[in-house]
Amino acid sequence: MTKKQRALAVIERLKNEYPIAECSLEYDEAWKLLVEVRLAAQCTDARVNEVVKGLYAKYPTVEALSQATPEEIEEIVRPCGLGKSKARDISACMKILHEKYNDVVPSDFDELLKLPGVGRKSANLIVGDVYGKPAVVTDTHCIRITNRIGLVEGTKDPKKVEMALWKILPPDEANDFCHRIVYHGRAVCTARTKPYCDKCCLKDVCKQVGV
């Protein structure tokens, strides 16, 4: 089985197992996803969803948040961990978004990468979920599982994993594939326990069952 064939098989099984593919961060405007994906670094999406309620209540717009000091932002987002650096990035990012982009999150991948605190994972999430473009979001679940099942081999580097997946995933399936991989990583192919291979929908196409 080639990697492309394995990828197609994995996509179909994940579709059956997780029919709905969406980001677990809760947002109703693009700029909020930009804030939340920064807060989600080394923090659970569930906690981020709770913490941002207080942030948005106090600063309901890009303009309002751009005028907050990093210290004021940190006071609210501290429960997400790494509060100082996250608050600094959010503050700087919102200022640029307000002053340069008129509060509109850019749809261009390279423009997104220029924003403070935005890396390839965040930029892919924005272009995929907000703008509906093909995207490959290589979070820890994606990196771990694609290596385990044999879609990617021998690299944990996020960009290398992303580039490898671009070669084998159909572009129109890539974004949903990444969301479903996250679901699967939380429920079955876990990181902190031995993966539950006995109940895995991918066990017949996985290259390294039990690894």
Key attributes of the depicted protein:
211 residues, 59% helix, 0% strand, elongated
Question: How would you characterize this protein structure?
Answer:
With 211 residues, the chain is an all-alpha fold. The protein has 2 domains: 84 residues, Orthogonal Bundle (Endonuclease Iii, domain 2), CATH 1.10.1670; 101 residues, Hypothetical protein, domain 2 (Endonuclease III, domain 1). 59% of the residues lie in helices and 0% in strands. The chain has 11 helices and no strands. Helix 5 crosses helix 6. The protein is elongated. The mean pLDDT is 96.
Helix content: 55-70%
Spell the H/E element sequence: HHHHHHHHHHH
* Weakly predicted, low-confidence segments: none
Strand content: under 5%
Q: How many individual β-strands?
A: 0
CATH superfamily of the largest domain: Hypothetical protein, domain 2
Mean pLDDT: 96
